[in-house]
TrEMBL record:
Protein name (database record): 5'-3' exonuclease domain-containing protein
Chain segments annotated as coiled-coil in the UniProt record: 224-251
Record has Coiled coil as a keyword: yes
Keyword Nuclease: no
UniProt superkingdom: Bacteria
Protein keywords: Coiled coil
SUPFAM superfamilies, per the entry: 5' to 3' exonuclease, C-terminal subdomain, PIN domain-like
Source lineage: Bacteria, Pseudomonadati, Pseudomonadota, Betaproteobacteria, Burkholderiales
Amino acid sequence: MSGSASATLHLTAAASTKGERFLIAQCKPYQGQRSGSKPKNWQVLRDYLERAEYVRFKRAMWDDREADDGMALAAYTSRDPLFDTVIATRDKDMRMLPGIHIDWTDFTLTHVPKGAYEVIGPYNGLVYGHKWFWLQMLQGDSADNIPGIPKVGEEKATKALAGTACNDEAYGVVATAYATKFGPDAPDIFVEQAALLWLRTTSNAPIADMLRIVPAKASIKAALDRLIIRVKEQRETLNRINAQAAAYEDAARAEQH
């Protein structure tokens, strides 16, 4: 449908840090609502996709971010996303990315230019472009347990951003809504939600990649610095715990022998 010459499967590795989203999330556990039940053959398919000896197709395995972020890297570093980037996924998060989007169910195409704020799918009527990120900032993402602003659903978010034409205007609406709801804590909560929702191109200090479209206000930059420090400290603590656990297991095995 897209005329692509090749395809690459982007896969979040089983042991991936997922771009530290589990550490970023404080308001609600990231993906914390997901149950342990999976479709019948899910694990078999995962094993197949992860094992290199089975793979005869192009694959990008991501250990330091999610597959979503890998697709973002491909889209944002493309010469022209409308020429050489095609996104085929049922995951709604990728609608913020530039490129040619293939609808998962009817295979129609939506073209989203680089830097586009809002594109309405000509066949499915869905919102694409950066506006989709701002809508999620208000309404959250139930699939990943990201709350957004409580009691703001799709209808209220759509109404709030109606008439906005760029990222600066959307930021004004969203930042005001956060300030009204959360008061002095608004910048930190805003930055947390943005860091969870924004699809990034980098793994080093990846959280700051949101400044690609979020205005670098003093309050936002200060909150972003606090978040980066907190996540770094949490990662260092987690690494120490894991190292201690590994050393304990090695010692226990040595004793047995």
